[in-house]
């Protein structure tokens, strides 16, 4: 019976494809579920303001696509894969959600993408870092849009090694993301002739880093690499400056820093730190114009994740418009076939593994003298071309890539 | 260099010292909890939120009113303490005499509301607080670089802890307090205003948390959620020390700081769990805690 049903459904589906795509927007509604940490450690980098960015995209699109209205629902993922899984299950099973957007903690994204694959819906991940999301955890149902640990390591770690930071001591957040980042950093440091001489894995989250900073100091390494995020990173940097890490000749390398983190630290504490970012609000007229609109809505400058949420929602809606369908595979294929040229990326391209590859930027935090206002924080040192940034498909372990 | 279990002695001494500093924080926080539980039998789950309010008040008073660190050290605990008195007067008083679980749930709810509202205003990235100039820098002890501020934290915390212990255990005021909560009717018969005493005691316990918050402001990122993780650890410390034991809370606080510090050196992944492991062991062999009176 079920077999019969499946056959029938696919027959009907293919008939509809042939017959013309116009009829294929389910329920005459494109429904987008926004899932992100709305109240915890990762709130500020995406959170409620990410929802604003998504709503900006929908408003710019006119609130409807091909006559079908665009609806948004949102939920707090509480940084928990379990909570997120049950939310997304309800969304796709009972509420006809077509696209899940946002997604921050890597563990959440990995769990959610499995459910999306099971129900053949689409997810666009903007907040997560782990490069494994489009490597061993890739599915035909999600796209990883803004950045991942691979270019973070490529950008920052290789720059620091080339400046003479040969020996590294790693402070790593003890969960999937930290491990992924440490792995990517180790590869880059060793490839550039450097060496990891020690590491310590700290619990997530940790408030007091003095003990770990002391161990890092005692190691005598040139560089202390921070493979963590959010409050862990800002706390580690504050403690490092208190314990005189830089005065004693060691360099700090923060592998993942968001604009909101640097803003929290301030130019005084964070000056000179190098970081890799997928986007910065003050790069050109296009980014500034969009950021001004965002700031009017939210009162703050956007992070790369906020910009990515807006950009990816626009790409998605354009693909729905072009194909006249909200079917996950149809839309994903259309998105892969269309290069991305907007305020977020130039010539961005979504690969078969779901990775959106685009230029990344090596930035340095300005000194208080250089910084003209509280959000004027980065100097862009170098553009890292897309093909240099991300893991090449030839090294991919993704099941969708024929290696 | 001499080594102990593969760790150089210099590193170990540094870690011991760091452990004592963190222990001073634990002592201060668990002391407030112990005072509140010991005297009022209230399980104060809003303690972490009060610690956070102490830090946040310090930052906001500096940003908007230019209030400096030393004034904040006095003013923030006073303000937060007054807020605590209000909570006791308007909320906790209504459930006095009920099972402990009621005060636990009530204070937990208050804590969630406070941090939830503040997250909406201030976000979670952390507010900046600049270290007072006189504490900038530090001294090289040979085995480690000791920031001046951390030294100050030990001194300030220990002085306040000792003073509190002394007042409660050794003075007449302390005797009133202990008697008033033991048999309030009798004490009222002696002309002591027991309800006021209870309000003030809760306010004082909360002010201790706020004091720890002020000490934390220059060294940790100040966010509306900073109290929640600390709270659980500090509760474990109180349980290990013996619920309600004032001296026990202080000694256990410092001890646990040291044990946690050593774990961070020898096996870091266990450092967030070690205190709870100790708690389990203590509860198995000495259910009333290391310094608690046998029930």
Topology:
The complex is a heterodimer of chains A (403) and B (295).
Chain A: H1 2-19, E1 29-36, H2 47-60, E2 64-65, E3 68-76, H3 81-94, E4 99-102, H4 106-119, E5 122-125, E6 142-144, H5 149-162, E7 167-173, H6 176-191, E8 195-202, H7 210-219, E9 223-227, H8 230-242, E10 251-254, H9 259-270, E11 274-277, H10 285-298, H11 304-323, H12 328-337, E12 349-350, E13 356-357, E14 360-365, E15 378-384, H13 386-389
Parallel strand pairs in A: 1-3, 1-4, 4-5, 5-6, 7-8, 7-9, 9-10
Antiparallel strand pairs in A: 2-3, 11-14, 12-13, 14-15
Helix pairs in contact in A: 2-11, 3-4, 5-6, 8-9, 11-12
Chain B: E1 3-4, E2 7-8, H1 9-40, H2 47-65, H3 69-90, H4 100-122, E3 138-140, E4 145-147, H5 148-170, H6 172-182, H7 184-189, H8 194-216, H9 226-241, H10 246-266, H11 274-285
Antiparallel strand pairs in B: 1-2, 3-4
Main location (chain B): membrane
Protein name (chain B): Branched-chain amino acid ABC transporter permease
Transmembrane segments (chain B): 12-37, 73-92, 104-129, 149-168, 196-220, 232-259, 266-285
CATH class of chain B: Mainly Alpha
Count of helical stretches of chain A: 13
Strand order of the largest sheet of chain A: 2-3-1-4-5-6
Beta-strand level of the residues of chain B, as a percent range?
under 5%
**Secondary structure tally, helices of chain B:** 11
And the CATH topology of chain B? ABC transporter involved in vitamin B12 uptake, BtuC
**Strand order across the largest sheet of chain B:** 1-2
Strand content of chain A: 15-25%
Query: How many domains of chain A, as an integer?
Result: 2
Helical proportion of chain A, percent range: 40-55%
SS content category of chain A: alpha/beta
Average pLDDT over all residues of chain A: 92
What is the CATH homology-level superfamily of the largest domain in chain A?
Response regulator
Provide the CATH top-level class of the largest domain in chain A: Alpha Beta
Just name the CATH architecture of the largest domain in chain A: 3-Layer(aba) Sandwich
- How many DSSP-defined strands of chain B? 4
Pfam families (chain A): Peripla_BP_6
Signal peptide (chain A): 1-23
Keywords (chain A): Signal
Protein name (chain A): ABC transporter substrate-binding protein
